[in-house]
Please model this.
Amino acid sequence: MRRAGQRIKAAGQRARRALGRAEDALGRAGAKLEGARNLAVASLERAVDVVFDDSARPSGLGDLTNGEVAAIQGAVDNARRQLNVVDSATTGDRRGVGTDLPIGKGVGTRSDIDYTTAPSNIDNFEGADLPSLDDHGILRGAPDEGVPTIRFEPGVRPRIENEQ
Model:
């Protein structure tokens, strides 16, 4: 009887050790699973940000992106003055839209965005962060008659005028 008790006790100890090893393995597996879960969630969040980041998408105003329209509208709202986008941005002919290429002419560059406003408004745009503005800055004067123009006004949705 004593021997049977010792065998039962030894079997119990082995079972407890096996249970401890199983719990340790389960804990390690859980930690790995948690790490994999965190990685999957982070990847999904990045993918959702890319899918729903609408700033690089076309705005429907020439070839301006949503981000460019928002930046221009913000500058116009801050300056409280009208600003027009003219030339290639209104007709959809810009090169390298949405890239970080340098502004310039020819291969390996992107087109600038040409802006016009009344001469009396120029100072109001001093320091404004207008996208793709070249070294010449904002052009003084009204857009040419009959030429497509994207008109930005404070607090008003931008619109295309003289669309062809």
